[in-house]
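User: structure tokens for this one?
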Amino acid sequence: MKTINDYMDTFAIAPPRLEQLTARALSKGGDFCDLYFEHTTYMNLLLKDGEVTSGGSHTDYGVGIRVLKGEKTGYAYSESTSMADMLAAADAASAIACSPAEPRHYARTADRRYDLYPSRIDWRTAKVNELVRVLKDLEAAIKVKDTRIVKIIARISCSVSDVLMYNSSGELTTDSRPMGSLIASVVFQQNGKTESKSVSRSFRMGAEMLSKELIDELAAEAVSGIDERFEAIRPAGGQMPVVMGAGASGILLHEAMGHAFEADFNRKGQSIFAGRLGEKICSDKISIIDDGTIAGNRGSGNYDDEGVPAQKTYMVEHGILTSYLHDRISAAWYGVPSTGNGRRESFRYNPIPRMRATYMEDGDTTREDIIRSVKKGIYVDEFSNGQVKIGEGDFTFYVKSGFLIEDGRLTAPIKDINVIGNGPEALADISMVAADLKIDNGTWTCGKEQNVPVTCGIPTVLVDHLTVGGE
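Assistant:
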């Protein structure tokens, strides 16, 4: 278990120097300053055609310094933690931020402590030959399941980040964040046709996540539904009911709705939900949560990247818009506590409001009852290549797999279609929600200006009207 002194040693820093840096950064009149020290070790191994064809590791190290003055933000970073280099970065951040501006107060945060990702086997000490064995076991477990397989690529990606955060309110926070991902991409051929499928699991855990159970689960998923993909048709398009399958369909919730709840978009009037707190925006059957407190979850964090403790935030509660997702800047602007959603890709980036694990709570019906209620429509369960306009809420998502629904039954498999709609309208059009919430633990990454790990989830839901782009 790391101590505060261990983190101080990693970054060659001591409390008096932290105080000296924040004082220097505020010397031109800033309202608030924070420091973000990071030491991350990355490793990747890739197995192709039965052999490890690439692999390696590298380390990222440095400190980011932010100064806030009214509506202005100054940010600078250094890849060195020598005092001279950090003082230069503090001066640069201060110079950017500290032109005349109306001052703003940044509140201290409650000191809540979590241990959301205990790691039994540190990725930094995991033995490479054992990781290679896992990749070969995964390849073998997939290969034996289907004679149409012509290629398997398996990959392990992992990292551990040691982080130290300090701010001008005197808050000192440390965190050690593991991340592991196991991924397989499989290519199938049948009668001159080719289909492919990728499966993955990603957790904030140590190397103990690489269990036989996980290998078996991924192998089964890798070949699941391939018969249907070879048989799938491209259906007629038009406006129709769409049933979203539990789990991966949550990416639509994340992209088409979740981003519009992030407070920076609302503070600047760019979101369709700006100024609508307290309004009813959908059925009272619907509650939407962003949660940073799920143990081992890819999107979770003991603290966000501003040192604010992890939280579970209801954005929508029984149909009412109850909260945006805040970092310290938007929280100060709205006069509310931060929700712990200030996140950044690395020390080189300024934190901004970002989602973590975003999902809809269970409803009061079943998947089967939802399908039975649809006379003519489609069921979809895998998406990719989504595009969303935050201001208008318009979205387009490519459907990788699904089924026609005819007279309340799943019939022909479908693929190669787009689902088109508007986030707020689609949310308001959800009329049925099943009690089968599934969090999808794949390697989801959100790319709003910066890349950060997230997860998503949803129960089976019925959207009464969406446009399907088909034949």
